[in-house]
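pinging the channel bc i need a second pair of eyes. not urgent but kinda urgent?? the chain im working w is below, pasted from the shared doc
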Amino acid sequence: MIKARQCAEDGRINEAGALILQALGHERRAGSAGPQVLQLIKPRS
């Protein structure tokens, strides 16, 4: 998720989104308790 955050901060939104979706798929398959990657999505001030 660090890589996705860095991509987003660098303006590479498409790459960041793909990494987030990939991580969500891994979480879903792993059966984790919650969508931890959603913590990266924050409204801009």
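so The mean pLDDT is 78. and Residues 1 and 39 are 10 Å apart (CA to CA). — does that match what u expected or am i reading it wrong
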